[in-house]
Amino acid sequence: MESFNSQFLYSILIIALGYVLKRSNLIQERDGEGLSRIVFNITLPSLLIITFHDITIDTSLILLIIIAIVYGVAQAVLGLIVFRDKSQRTKGMLSMMVPGFNIGLFAFPLVEAIWGQEGLKYFGMFDFGNALIVFGVVYVLGSYFADENERKDLRDVMKKVSKSVPLLTYIIVCTMNFTNIPVPGAILEVAGTISVANMPLSLLLLGIYLNFSFAKGSFATIAKLLSLRYIVGLAVGVALFFLLPFEDMFKYTLLMALVLPISMSVLPYSVEFNYDQRFVGTVSNMTIVISFFLLWGLGYMII
């Protein structure tokens, strides 16, 4: 338990360092875009290669993918129902913020430090399904309710999915695993060296992007959105924790994954579809803080 608390404390300090560096103008928020590209396209895929190149994928791991997809679709439908009375653009912005989780950037650093490769294996399989939701369902929602000249067709959606380096890494490495094709030793050595940087860079990036400012009068909408994510997520997570007959790590994964922050991809989507970027960014940051302390509390009770 002491190591668990220590890891959360170290994570807070690294996030705070990123925030202080931004506030002191030593790093600009726009610098975070370059850093995020490094994390999502280099350090995170390297970590995935190291984690998945030789794991044994059993039934419970496949079930994590299915649960992530089913839950994401269900949340998308629930979001459309709850926000049905909003204007088209507002409904599009809010509904794409309901499904999908920030796993690669937010959860992986904590999971790696607390549970190591074993934890990454479970959260990674959940993220496989989550990636299909984020790059498929969430993108389609954002596009469908955007202004007509900003909507995307199926070809654009498929192009977006095909350019996701983490998703492609999942597919390639897991396919090689299934077919017993070994990853070359040189690639493993390089990936192993690079993957070490994923945790500190991810946490620094969270601090750089922290920002809390939103228009007056939006509190009720924010409260409804956060309730959809956290009350529903926590209720489903607790139910699955006690009902499913699987190993502890499987249950920990579901309990914690369903209360993770909004996916980082939602912010660039809001730019692409010309939604309220300030609102999206602020709410995303709020979920980072809420999820951080929720995970700390949940971890304290179950570990």
From TrEMBL:
Keyword Cell membrane: yes
Main location: membrane
Domain of life: Bacteria
Keyword field: Cell membrane, Membrane, Transmembrane, Transmembrane helix, Transport
Recorded topology in the membrane: Multi-pass membrane protein
UniProt keyword annotation of Transmembrane helix present: yes
Annotated TM spans: 6-22, 34-55, 61-82, 94-116, 128-146, 167-188, 194-214, 226-246, 252-271, 283-302
Localization terms from the record: Membrane
PANTHER family per record: AUXIN EFFLUX CARRIER FAMILY PROTEIN (PTHR36838), TRANSPORTER AUXIN EFFLUX CARRIER EC FAMILY (PTHR36838:SF3)
Record's protein name: AEC family transporter
Source organism per UniProt: Pontibacillus salicampi
